[in-house]
Design a protein that fits this description.
This protein is about 10% helix and about 45% strand. The chain has about 170 residues and is mainly beta. The strands form 3 sheets. Strands 3, 5, 6, 8 and 9 form a 5-stranded antiparallel sheet that branches. Strands 4-11-10-7 form a 4-stranded mixed sheet, with no helix packed on it. A hairpin with a 2-residue loop joins strand 10 and strand 11. The protein is elongated and about 45 Å long.
């Protein structure tokens, strides 16, 4: 069946014989993309995946909620008051000429085993970490004053939040 598809594709795009080539009858095929996936350039088959690779992983809060009368700090501060809950995300980044951008689902993958590997590198007694529906997010609760480090690894690239639980 595959042979039939290749023959039909060759007939559709047209192929010619080059009697002056090394074999006297080599078949020359122009850039053909049989699987309808984007081509990665002349002479390379399309893979459906962008050629970009993960450059870095940003791990940081995207929201902090305090229901205990404390004031929630800015997300970028890396601070989490005791008793407050921080929503943490791992965002894979791709480098482009203009800088970094968020990776697409095609670039970072989805589900097991692509989902981030989360680890608490230090300060595990300072925070409580809960799993949420999105593989790229965690919910962190400040337990005791001190420093903590939480990391996420996506496709072999590691990023960390070095945070502080404040009073």
């Amino acid at each position: 069946m595959k042979l039939l598809l290749v023959v039909l594709a060759l007939a559709f795009v047209g192929c010619t014989q080059d009697p002056t080539g090394p074999g006297g009858g080599d078949i020359i095929i122009s850039n053909v993309n049989i699987n309808n996936a984007p081509s990665n350039g002349p002479g390379t088959p399309g893979t459906g995946a962008a050629p970009s690779a993960i450059d870095s992983v940003r791990v940081g809060f995207f929201g902090v909620t305090c229901t205990n009368g404390k004031i929630a700090p800015p997300n970028a501060s890396g601070e989490l008051p005791v008793g407050c809950v921080g929503d943490l995300t791992a965002t894979p980044k791709v480098r482009e000429v203009a800088g970094l951008r968020d990776a697409t689902e095609i670039e970072h993958g989805e589900g097991t085993p692509i989902n981030p590997l989360w680890t608490i590198e230090s300060g595990s007694s300072m925070v409580s970490v809960q799993t949420v529906d999105n593989f790229f997010n965690k919910r962190v609760t400040g337990q005791a004053v001190g420093r903590f480090t939480i990391c996420a690894t996506v496709k072999g690239v590691r990023g960390c939040l070095e945070g502080t639980v404040t009073p």
